[in-house]
Model the fold of this input.
Amino acid sequence: MILRKAFAFIRRSYMLQMSYKLESILRMFFMLFNILTYYFVAKLVGTAGAKYLEPYGGDYFSFVLIGIAFSTYLMVSLRGFSETIRDEQMMGTLEAMLVTPTDTTTVITFSSLWSFIFASIRVVLYLLVGIFLGVNLNNANLLGALIILFLTVLSFSSLGMLAASFIMIFKRGDPINMMFMSTSELFGGVFFPIEVLPWWLQSISHIFPMTYSLSGMRHALLQGYSLHDLLPEISALVIFCMILMPMSLLIIRFAVKRVKEEGTLVQY
Amino acid sequence: MLGPNGAGKTTLIKILCTLIFPSTGTAKVNGYDVLKESRKVRESIGYVTTDERSFYWRLTGRQNLEFFANLHNYYSKKAQSRVSDLLSIVNLEKRADDPFLSYSAGMKQRLAIARGLINDPRVLFMDEPTRSLDPKAAQDARDFIHDYIVSEQEKTIFLSTHNLNEAEQLCNRIAILDEGKIKVSGTPQELKNGLGSNSTLSDVFTSYSGKRLEEEKQPKSSFMKEMRFRHRGGLGMGRR
Done:
């Protein structure tokens, strides 16, 4: 039943998105310019950063392509849940959903499922365009990449649920979103290997799940690391999940209880 | 539930529908505690709001109802069949596949009533169901509520309104709510008799709340001609 309900939310979001066809097409189309920008930046950089890029295959374009593609999941996770709540509040549909037997946490989490699917379509497109522009994924360990992806989505989603809890209570100004959105690109290794950073900044990088996610994804896709070789990243992401998932579920339940007590659930 | 704006009618309905937790006290709906058994409460109730924003405007009436049927754990053919029946009952089958944004206010309200009936609830909560309708559409809606939902389907309706005619026309029992407190309750006749002969519901309201409510003129109903009731077997709408 849970899968059928998940499908119902995906279908609804898909139909809503397809009712704005032009927006969907434009979002996909202009993404190509983003990729091309980094392609030419990579040409400019050449082999300048070869020393730092060597563990990831040595090619900057491949490095940054994986970085921007998979950081999409962080953006979707951090924004997805809170934006879902806000959108449903503003559309006025949240209350109508919450008066059904489907519980509040399910409504919030499932409402974001389409965002993850849409993000996955974008990631696949990123990779396809990347392959067309010369990125070599011949040695990719797909199973390893999928495991890293699964753990990435779980850990990032937990952060997103924390962000949504703040939005529910404070309506605006959620610190989780602000902190991770503004710092993950610097510390998470989206545009450059964290080894470029001075040692004391590198130590900060290690508290961001993004660091392990991108490192593992690059090793799996570009270097074809085996599952055994990927264990450090997988273990780190599992630890993040074990800490963040129960914490986020507890906090979002607390947030739902509090806004129901205050009667502010549908206020924004 | 009769009361002026700000009396607490919507808050009370939201508490009974488990959308808001009560700050003190307890409440039961269909024998279920709104705090401890909130899911069972929601399984056994329907909620009709006047807020036309509570639908997805870019989806069709059918797509909207099917989504909400899924939230009530109706899936696939069961959901489709249920939705088709309801669209027929509220006479929206011809416009079922048009976007919600193209519906008139009356059609939007009929779809809201259809959504409230999706799970064949024992109790239907209606928060000022005719507030945004013109007098004729409002009367049509009242007739539908009285003739179909109450008389034919034997559902219990908990309705809030600040319209005296509506309360008198639809309600077996009336409670006057003002500033969050029930001032008096009883059948319309009991309430009027309590103030002496020739008293009106307006007099009752003024007597207990110290305020006056505007009365709405009654248009002649054409509802029964417009609505097509289909008394097909197996609709599953009857009281179980």
Observations:
- The mean pLDDT of chain A is 88.
